[in-house]
Amino acid sequence: MNADQVVEKILADANAEASKVLRQADDELARQQAGLDAQLKSFKDETARLAKESAEDKKMRMMAGARMQASREILKTKHVVIETVFAKAAEKILQLDDNSYLSLMEKLLVKAVESGDEQVVIAAGEHRINADFVNRVNGSLGDKGHLSFSDEKCPGCAGFILRHGNIETNSTLDVLLGQAKSELEIKIAKELFQD
Question: Into how many domains does the chain fold?
Answer without folding.
Answer: 2
